[in-house]
Design a protein that fits this description.
With about 160 residues, the protein is an all-alpha fold. It has one domain. Helix content is about 95%, strand content about 0%. It has helices at about 1-10, 10-145, 150-164. Helix 2 (about 10-145) crosses helix 3 (about 150-164). The longest helix has about 130 residues, at about 10-145. It is rod-shaped and about 190 Å long. The protein starts with a helix and ends with a helix.
Length: about 160
């Protein structure tokens, strides 16, 4: 039983040596293990912080790009609408020009037709006068039995026709 008592007994020197060993081991671990681990953890934390900062900057840039894109899209829609309006106005102007040209041509055609009709009337009247003069001369020759001067007779008939 004495043997068992030695295992249970407390030795002060043994406890002091154990505490000293613990302190020395703690200081050595702190010096060679904790500080490098803390430096590695701090380095990793800095890298993570930089990644988060870069992500925030990228997100902010993406938001600005999105706003810029939306503004450009709205501008493009407005520009497209203006192009359509401009094309419509050009088409209206061309339509008006084409109609005006068609009306002008129709008026010119009508004027030419009226002039042609007027010339045809004059020619028909002249032909009719000449024919009447010829017939009158022939009738007068037949009645009188002699030939009258054609020019004098024509002048006489022309003055008579004009009085009519």
């Amino acid at each position: 039983m004495a043997e068992y008592l030695e295992l249970i007994s407390l030795d002060v020197w043994h406890i002091a040596a154990s505490i000293a060993n613990l302190l020395i081991l703690t200081l050595i671990l702190k010096k060679f293990l904790f500080k490098p681990v803390q430096n590695v953890l701090a380095s990793r934390q800095n890298q993570v912080d930089e990644l988060y900062d870069a992500a925030e900057r990228t997100k902010a840039s993406a938001e600005e790009d999105k706003k810029l894109y939306a503004a450009k899209l709205a501008g493009a829609a407005e520009e497209a609408e203006q192009i359509v309006r401009s094309a419509s106005q050009r088409a209206d102007r061309q339509s008006d020009e084409i109609l005006a040209d068609a009306h002008r041509r129709a008026a010119e055609t009508m004027k030419r037709a009226e002039e042609d009709i007027e010339q045809a009337k004059k020619k028909a009247m002249d032909d009719l006068k000449n024919e009447i003069s010829d017939i009158s001369v022939q009738i007068a020759e037949g009645v009188v039995g002699r030939e009258l001067n054609g020019d004098d007779h024509r002048q006489l008939i022309d003055s008579f026709i004009e009085k009519l």
